[in-house]
Amino acid sequence: AAGVIQSPRHLIKEKRETATLKCYPIPRHDTVYWYQQGPGQDPQFLISFYEKMQSDKGSIPDRFSAQQFSDYHSELNMSSLELGDSALYFCASSLPVREARHEQFFGPGTRLTVL
Amino acid sequence: AQKITQTQPGMFVQEKEAVTLDCTYDTSDQSYGLFWYKQPSSGEMIFLIYQGSYDEQNATEGRYSLNFQKARKSANLVISASQLGDSAMYFCAMRELLNNAGNMLTFGGGTRLMVKP
Fold it and tell me: Is the separation of the CB atoms in B18 and B82 below 8 Å?
């Protein structure tokens, strides 16, 4: 079965650089979520999109922005990178909220290292 | 206050034995969902099992079952017949469905399970 695709899987950047992470949800899933998991931490919700509109916002820094495109893929743009941004970034997708179970299925994550 | 609490940072279990991973939650909503995810050392987050707050039966998925005690606000994961491949970090998560809580998951701190041969 198709899963959530994230690219790149690994990314190394210098401080103050920018990074773009991409997420391709499972077909038919119209809701995309972004989470950040620091070393030894639990995942923290950043932002989500439903039908190409931002639906919820969590602890996302102002330096980050995201959007969902017409094909439902999403991109997380990170600027002025800091050492503390080094983390595993997950994208998850789910069926429409009206579906009863709406589990979130996670992609493999993008491991960002900021040097 | 923590919404999801996993009190066991790490646990050992003997291969082929059953193990229970604890999870308690805090919400004032009546409608919510509880999830368990497995995160192996490779990093991916694997969905294991889901329990809705209105589900009358405890959820089961193969060797995984969820001991849901609503009044106590606990949703413990039971893994039967542990296998070496079960060694991983396990996260309990909650999604509150009402009161504009959004659809995001709130995670507990995780329990690292180590299966001994």
Answer: yes
A30 by DSSP, 3-state: which? coil
Contacts of A108 (CB under 8 A, 6+ apart): A4, A6, A9, B43, B44
CA-CA-CA-CA dihedral for A5, A10, A16, A21, to nearest 10? 0
DSSP secondary structure letters along B20-66? EE--EE--S-SSEEEEEEEE-TT---EEEEEEETT-SSPPEETTEEE
Is A71 in contact with B72 (CB distance < 8 Å)? no
B111-116 and B10-14 as β-strands: parallel, antiparallel, unpaired? Answer: parallel
Q: Which residues does B contribute to its contact with A (CB < 8 Å)?
A: 33, 35, 37, 43-47, 50, 52, 91, 95, 102-110
Instruction: Give the pLDDT confidence of B38-72 residue by residue, as tens digits.
Output: 999 999 999 999 999 988 899 999 999 999 999 99
* Nearest-10 Cα torsion for A105, A110, A111, A115: -150
- Report chain B's C-alpha Rg in angstroms: 14
B-facing residues of A in 11-50 (CB < 8 A) are 31, 33, 35, 42-45, 48, 50
- pLDDT per position as a tens digit, A42-81: 999 999 998 889 988 898 999 999 999 999 999 999 999 9
- Interface residue A100 vs chain B (CB under 8 A): yes
A107: tokens are: 């992609």
Residue A94, both tokens: 């789910």
CB distance A58 to A68 below 8 Å:
no
